[in-house]
Amino acid sequence: MSHEPGATPHTDADEATEAPPKKRRRAPLLVAIAVVYLARLVSAALASVPWVAAVSASGVGDFPEGDAKLFERGGLYLLEAVLAQRALLVQLIVPTAGLLLALSLVGVVPEWLLLRALRPAPRAPDDTLVGAPTAREPQAGSEARRVLPRLGALTVSAWAARALLLLVAAALAATVRSYVVGARDERLPSLVTAAVVLVGSLGWAGLSVLHDLAAIEVTSGSASLRASLRRALATLRQRGLGLAARYGLFALASLTVLLAGMSAVAWLDVSRAEAWRPLATGALHQAVILAHVVLHAAWLSSAMPSPLTAPTTPAAHRPHADAFL
Amino acid sequence: MGSLELDRRTAALATALVAVLALAGCDASGPDGSGRDAPPRGAPHPLSPPSRAARLPARTAPVASYALSARLDEATHTVHAEGTLTWRNTSRVSVSELYFHLYLNAFEHARTLFNRSPFTRARSGRRPRRWGKVELTRLVARELGGADLLGSLEPHSPGDPLDATDRRLPLPRPVQSGETLTLELAWDAVLPDIVERTGVSRDFHFVGQWFPKLARLEPDGSWAHFPFHPHAEFYADFGDYDVTLDVAEEMVVGATGRRVAEHVEGGRRTLRQRAESVHDFAWAAWPGFERRDERIGEVAVHLLYPPGHATNAERTLAALRFGLPFFAAAYGEYPYPDLTVVHPPAFAAPAGGMEYPTLITTGGPWHQPYWSRAVELVTLHELGHQWFYGLLASNEPRWPFLDEGLNSYAETRASEGLFGASSASDLAGVELSAIALHRASMLLGEHDAPIARPASEFVDFVELGALAYSRPALLLRTLGNVYGPERLARALRSYAERFRFGHPTPDDLLGVIEDEVGAQAATNLRGALFHGHGVNYSVRDVRSVRREPAASGDVESRVVIHRHGELQFPVQVVLITSSGERLTRSWDGAGRDAVLSHVGDHPVTAVRLDPDDAILVDENLLDNAWRRAPATPLASIERVLFAFQLLLGGLAP
C-alpha cells in the first residue's frame, strides 16, 4: 500500500486500536435518525392534542366500542362526531397550521444532526485516501450557532419558492385552459392541468433536491447560505440526472411504503373494538414514518459529494458511501 | 461498495417498487364487480313482496294531451312551436277559467319571482346572462266557437305584476265536468342562458318547460296554479304527447318518449316523439353528443353524453342495469318502453341532475374517481324520480318532500344494494354511506321544522335539502328499522301501486303507512311531517349501590333513559355489567323517562341505547351511550398523530 513521502505510515497496530470505521460512523447516524423520528413524533403529538381532545369531547368514548365507532363502515359516527365538533375543529385549523410551520422550523435541528452524522469526517489538506489521520470535527456548539440559522433561512426560502411555484403553476394552468376551455372534449382542459401539475411536480422535486444539496453544503462547510446555494446549483448541474434518478427512487420508495402501510392498516380494521388493533395500527404507522425517515437519510447520504469531487479544505470530505448503506 | 453494485441494487429496488404499486392499483372497486365488495348484480329489492301475477297498468286515461310541432332556430336559440292541447275537465264541477304555467317567463328579467331575491336564486347561484320567455301568439278554443282567447289571457301572475309565469285565462263560457276542450296554440319559446335546468349554453340546448302547460284542475274544481318559485318544481295532469321536432341536421336529440319517425332533408332533421301517460315533455339537442343504446329488460335505454365521458357512460349504464329492476321490484314496473339519459357537457352543468318523464339528466366531470359514487348516485336518484314524480305525480311545489323525500329514501336503498356500506364513497378504506350523508344534511339544516310545507316556504336550499330530501328519507328508514323493514316495503309498494298514474297527497301516504305499518308509525310520521316533531334519546343517569345486607346478587343498578321530543319510538337498551354481561331491555318510548333496574353480582358499567342505530332521526347519536370510565380514544390518537407526522414530513422541504 503506497503512501506519500513524509506521511506517517498506518500500521496494523494502529488499525487494531481504532474502532471499526463503519461502526464508529453508524452509531451517531442511528442516533441522528432516532432524533429525527422522535422530533417528528413529539411535534405531531403537540399538534394532535387539541384535535384528540375534540374527539374525546364528542362523547364517542362512552360507547362500549370506544372510538372504534368512528371507523365503522358507512361513516355514520365519523360524520356525527365531526359535525358535533365542527365549530371547534374549524377554530383549530389556523392555529394548528401555524404550529406545524413553527415545529417544522424547529425541525432543522434534528435535520442538522442527521446531516452531521451522514457527512464523512473532514481530512487534512495533504490527506491521502487511506490511512491518513483525520482532522478534528468542528465543535458542535459553534457549528450549531453558525449552521442552524442558515438551515432555518433555507427552509423558509424553500417554502417561499414552493408557494411561488404553486402560484405560477395555477396561473399557467388557468391561462392555458382558457384557450382550450371551448373544446368539445372535456378531457382537453384537464390534460392541460395534468401537464402543468406534472411539470410543477418536477419543479417541486427540483426545489427539494436543491434544498437538500444546499443543506448539505451549509452543514459541511463554512460557506454562507448564498455560497451554499451556488454550490448546490453547481452540483445539480454536474450530477443532475443521477441525483434526479436517486431522488425519484427514494420518493417512489416512500410512496410504496405509505401505500403498503395503508393496505396493511385497512386489513387490521380498527372498527372492531379489540384494543390490540389500534396498537398494531399505531405500530404499523410508526414503522411507516420511521421508514420514511430512513429513506430520507438514505437519499441525503446518496446526495453527499463523492471523494473525486470533494474539495480539500480544512473541512474537506472524505466520502464514505458505505457510511449508511 | 462501488457505484456498479449500487446501481444493480437500485435497479432491483426500482423494479420491485413498480411491481408493488401496480398491484396496489389493481384493488379498485366499482359497480362492475371488480372490487372486493362486488354486490349482487341486478338483484331485486331485498324487501319487496313476492312478484304479482297481474302486471300493473302501463297507461292511464289522458287528461291534458299535447300534439305539437316545434322548430329550433339555432341562431336565435328560439323554439317556434304550435299545436293543440286537448283537455278534459275531470273535476266534479264546471270551470270558467284556465290557468297556464309559462315557466320560461321566470327568466324574462331580473324582477320575476324566480330572480328577484338574491338569497333564493337558482341553484347555479347566478342570474342568466341571456333572458328567456314564452310568448304566446295564438290561443283559440275550438269548442268555444273558435274564439281567439289570447286577448283574455291575464298579463301577469295573480297579484304580482312583475311575474308572468302563472297566467289566468277567463273563458267565455263554463266547461262542464267531463267536457273536453281543444285549444290551438302557437308560441315562441326564447331559451335563456342555462342557470336552472333549461335553456341554451353555447350550442347545447336543453328545452324544458318550454310550452304553455295547463295547470292541473283538482277534483274539487280548484286549480293548482302557482307562480314559479326558485325552490319549486312542477305539477301537471297526465296525457299523451305527440311532438315533432325540427332541428339542424347535425343536432343529436334526446327527448321524452319513443322516437317513431326521423328523417333528414335540406339540412334539417325532423323527428317525431310519442309518449303516452306522461305529464311533461323535455328534450335536449347538441351536436356534440355521443350515444349508446342498450336494452335493459324491456326498456330501451338511450344514453347521450359528451366526448371523453366513456367511463361515466359505462358507470351510468351499470347503475341503470341495477336500478331499473331494483325499483321495479320495489315500486312496480317501469311502464314506458324507453328511457333517455342526458349527461350535459360541463359548460351546461345546471341542466343536469333533473328528472322529466322518461328522460333524466345526470352530470359530473369526465374524471370521476373510482372511489366516488357520484355518477351512480345521481343516476339512481333521477331514475327513482320516474316513480316518485313520474308515476306518483304529486304536487311538487306544494309538497316537495313527497317526491324528493321518498325518492331520497329509495335512492339510499338502491345505492346500498349496489355498493353496501360505501354507497357514497370508498377512499383509502374510509367508507361513507348515502345514509350518513343524509344525516349530515339533516344536522346541518333545520331539523325541528315542519317538512310538509310548500317549497316557497323554505328559507334556502340548505333547509330544503335538509327537510324535504334528507329528513323524510331518514324518517322512512327509521320506520323500517323500528317497525319492520318488510312492513315498510309493503307500505311503499302499496302506495306506489295504489297511486300509480295519480296525484297522491301526504294524507294518502299516511293512510298507507297506517294500514301497513301501524297507527303509531303513522302518528310519528304525521307529527314529523306537519309539526316538526323530533326525538332525542339519551342516557340520563346510571347508579349502582350495594344492597344491605350483603348477599348474592347484592348490587342494584338503576339506569334512567330519557326521551326528549314528541316522536315516540320503541328503543332497545343494552346494559353491560362490569363482568361483561350484556342484558338487552326494551322501552316503548312512552313517557319522558324509563327507569331500568338490574340486580346482580356486578354493577352496570356501560349502557348502549339503540345499539343498531335504528332511530336515524335521533337528534344526537353521540349521547346514546354511557360508560363509567370513558375509553381512551386510542384509534383516533394514533390516526391523528400519524396524519400530523405525514404533514410534518410534507412541510419539511
Structural class of chain A, by secondary structure, is: mainly alpha
What does the radius of gyration of chain B come to? 29 Å
Number of strands of chain B: 31
Computed CA radius of gyration of chain A, to the nearest angstrom: 25 Å
State mean pLDDT of chain B (0 to 100 scale).
90
Write the layout of secondary structure elements.
The complex is a heterodimer of chains A (325) and B (653).
Chain A: H1 12-17, H2 21-57, H3 76-84, H4 86-106, H5 108-118, E1 122-123, H6 140-180, H7 187-220, H8 225-268, H9 276-303, E2 316-317
Antiparallel strand pairs in A: 1-2
Chain B: H1 3-25, E1 64-73, E2 78-88, E3 95-101, E4 133-141, E5 147-148, E6 166-175, E7 180-190, E8 199-201, E9 204-207, E10 213-214, E11 216-217, E12 223-224, E13 239-248, E14 252-255, E15 258-265, E16 268-278, E17 283-286, E18 290-296, E19 299-305, H2 310-331, E20 338-342, E21 354-356, E22 359-361, H3 374-384, H4 386-391, H5 400-419, E23 425-427, E24 430-432, H6 434-444, H7 461-483, H8 485-498, H9 506-516, H10 519-531, E25 535-546, E26 555-565, E27 571-577, E28 582-587, E29 593-600, E30 604-609, E31 625-627, H11 634-651
Helix pairs in contact in B: 2-3, 3-5, 5-7, 6-7, 7-8, 7-10, 8-9, 9-10
Short account of what is shown:
Chain A has helices at 12-17, 21-57, 76-84, 86-106, 108-118, 140-180, 187-220, 225-268, 276-303; strands at 122-123, 316-317. Chain A has a two-stranded antiparallel ribbon with strand order 1-2.
